[in-house]
Amino acid sequence: MEQPATGGAAVQPGVSPAHIHDTDQLLDPVLFSNDNGSYKLNTVPAFSLHLVISTAISIVGIVLAASFPTDRRCDAYFIMLYLRATFWVITYLFDHFVKKQHDNLRMQGYHDFHRETNMQKGIPLQLVSLWNSMLLAVQALIHHFYAENFWEHCAAGWLSPVSYVTAFTVAENLVLAVSHSLYIDKVRKFNSAKLAPDVLRGADRAGGSLGLMQPGGDTEELLEKQADLIAYLRDHTHKLNQKLHQMQTNVRPVRAPQIP
């Protein structure tokens, strides 16, 4: 006897409801995805921590420049250089983490927000690298002009090298504070909106179909959107192939009854 299913289809004896659900997922994979409309970009804690570290280094620089005794101001200068080098390594690892999170966001189908924040997510590493390059140039000039008298000028009050490094660090921290705040605000709004992936909102978007060129539209932007969509569908197809292979592996072979 066949038993009726909830959707009106017949269920074969010996077929578990889990296999039926898996089959439905294969027939309509996008609609059955658990991530649709609930994906969150988990980069706000990383950006907040990076800004806290930058602020802490700036405060340390101000304390060293203001309170270190004259005979130890050269030590304060080298401490700041070590902190700058360490901060660049932290920023490099931070950038790698953020890029990975944004790549996951892109593969989930959120192409518009990925493009919107593509430049902002790279600002920290670019800014810290630029600032360190400028500090390296300033340090080269200091050693070039001071030469053998460097250790004397190293303790020259507010015009000492540690003051230069601290000024650069504070300026960098201010720029990072503005950039990080704008980025965090965008990500929080995105996470609160709980939007479905762009590929599921294609019919509701003003731009229309990705296959059609709107009057006055940007050809480069259209090609970029199409490339993102192709990458998303390719990744989704790969996941479906893995799911199908897993289902085929779990299927038990059915033996036909032998006729005596």
UniProtKB/TrEMBL annotation:
Membrane topology of the entry: Multi-pass membrane protein
Keywords: Membrane, Transmembrane, Transmembrane helix
Compartment(s) where it occurs, according to its Swiss-Prot or TrEMBL record: Membrane
Chief localization: membrane
InterPro entries membership: TMEM192
Coiled coil spans: none
Domain of life of the native organism: Eukaryota
Ranges annotated as spanning the membrane: 47-70, 76-98, 123-142, 162-184
Pfam families: TMEM192
GO CC list: late endosome; lysosomal membrane
Family named by the database record: Belongs to the TMEM192 family.
Protein name per UniProt: Transmembrane protein 192
Lineage of the organism: Eukaryota, Metazoa, Ecdysozoa, Arthropoda, Hexapoda
